[in-house]
Amino acid sequence: MTAxxxxxxxxxxxxxxxxxxxxxxxxxxxxWGGYAPDAVVAQFEKETGIDVQVTxxxxxxMISKLRATGxxxxxxxxxxxxxxxxxxxxxxxxxxxxxxxxxxxxIQTSMLNATRESTSxxxxxxxxxxxxGTSGLIVAGPAANVVTDYTDLCADAVAGRVSYxxxxxxxxxxxxxxGEDPFAAYDNEGEYRAILEKxxxxxxxxxxxxxxxxxxxxxxxxxxxxxEVTAAMAWDAGGWTLHAExxxxxxxxxxxxxxxxxxxxxxxxxxxxxxxxxxxxxxxNRPEIAAQITNQSGNFTAAVGADxxxxxxxxxxxxxxxxxxxxxxxxxxxxVPPGLEALEGQVLDRIQAAN
Length: 355
Fold this sequence. Notes:
three-stranded parallel beta sheet
């Protein structure tokens, strides 16, 4: 065997190993619809050579799939930030993130901090922010001069032309607008109950102002389009849809802060390709990539500067709703302690039944 032959064989072995490694390189992503657009997946695969397998899911399904396998079967998941720690304590399906491998400079600081606080346990951080949204106020025309916080929905100037849901976000929003901090009271049932009593009284007093308690997004949008309702508590995406149709309708962040949810990136405990997972996290936080996710899903991501690349009508509506101060003022939902929602349900039932 000549030196050339040995070299050629060795090269062949290396090439085979290398080829095998490339073929084995795969990222199995467990995510929500719209969070992994085809064009984004294609660009990632082109840049990295990593094949992306997308499985669409939701919080309950993610928990079920990962619980069934002890955290195997996927390399990266996207649960909401308030659905991680409780699940981790109970089922041990995630592993701590190595934050040194994530380019945190690409991520909004307020969201990064909120997610760290709500997904940390025993010195480890289990989630990093990905996609977010809020509920706040949708106001039409002159109502914008009157309704700047949740409790303004009870003002005489908008009597009979107001709508909100009888759900827990309404309790939370009114509590903040009344100067309370319901999230800080989550772990003190007596204190939380006292806050709810104040909110219950306010919402019963406000019933005369309510046109209807909306239960579906389409119903609310129709009420605002026809002018039957001029002020409502609702999600940002609905407000931006209406703004595109009628610029006099806007989603505004309340003075006491919009209520925010965050879907995260989390590593399943038995992920096989952690390197690919970190590459994906840093890739989709690039502003121009993040904007593609927003254009597809309708929700903004935690990536800094991504709004500059979002389609114009969505970008303009977003900028009307959120400056940096409003972003920093968002009250992010923390994990809900057991039993709290039952307590809230009793309050909501009494408000519904009150005359």
